[in-house]
Amino acid sequence: MALPAQDERTMPAVVLRDIARRPLDHVLTELYALIEQYGYVVVVCSPATPEPVVRRLHTLRSLLESDRIALFRPELPPLGIAVLARQLRQLASCDLSPGVLASAGRLLTHYIHAGAVLGSVAKLDRVPVGLKAHAKSWVPGSQFAVLAHPEPQLVRIAPDVTLKGPEFGTWLLVAKGQLQSDWAAGLGTAWNAHGVRETPLPAESPVWWGTGRMIEFCSYLADLSVLYQLVTSVRQTSCHWCGLDVIGDRCVFCSATPPGHEPPAPRALEQRTPA
Known about the structure:
The protein has helices at about 25-40, 50-65, 80-90, 100-110, 130-135, 185-190, 205-210, 225-230; strands at about 40-45, 70, 115-120, 145-150, 155, 170-175, 195-200, 215-220, 235-240, 245. It is of the alpha+beta class.
C-alpha cells in the first residue's frame, strides 16, 4: 500500500502490481526502467506478501544480475510497512547515498509502534496469545488490543486499559477494517500523539492479523528533519563487498555483513614432566 505524500518533498511511490501474474518479460522491463531512471531501487514488502510474489522478486533480481535492487521485508504489520516505505520516500529527497537510505529502514523500524484492535485473536499467530485470551475471543463482543512491534503486548479492551506506547512525540495513523470501535483513535491521547490521521486498510492486513474484524494503527515520526537527524547521527561504514556506504551491520543491497575478526589462536598447553 502506497500512502499519500507526507509533504511536497516526498518522492512518489512506484507500486509493482501483480508481478507474480503478469508476464515475466513485462515486469522485467518495468524494473529495468526504474533502475535506469533512479539508479537504485529499494523494494519494501510485507512478511505477509504471498510467496510466489517473493520468488518472482528474487527471480527478477537474478535475471537483471543487479546489486542495485534491495529487497527489504521488515518484521512489521502491513500498516507499519506502508509508514516505513513513506519515511524512506521522504528521506529519498535528501543528500543520502543509496546504501545509507536503504539501510535506514532497519534503523527507523525501532521508532515505529504498530498494532491493531481485533474482534478475535483465535487465528492470530504473529503475536504470542495465551490460552485465556483464546477462550475470551469466543465471547460475543470481546475486543482485544494488540501491539506487534516493537514489543508484543496483548490486552482485552476495557475502561482505562491501554498499551505501552512510544516515549517520544509521534503521529498516530489509523486504518479501519470491519470493526466498530473508538479505542484506537483514543490511543492517540494515551500516547500523547501530535494528532490522529486515518487511511484505508492495507489489503494484506486481514491475512497478517488473522481476521477482517479489526482496526490497525501505527505511531510514527513524521517530521523529515527528525528522520534525517536520526539517520545521519549513526556512524557510516563502507560495505566490504559492494563498496556502498551503509549504516548498521548488513548491506541491504548485497546482504553482506562485515567480516568477523579471527579469534586468537589458543595457547598450547604446557607439557609437564611429573616429578
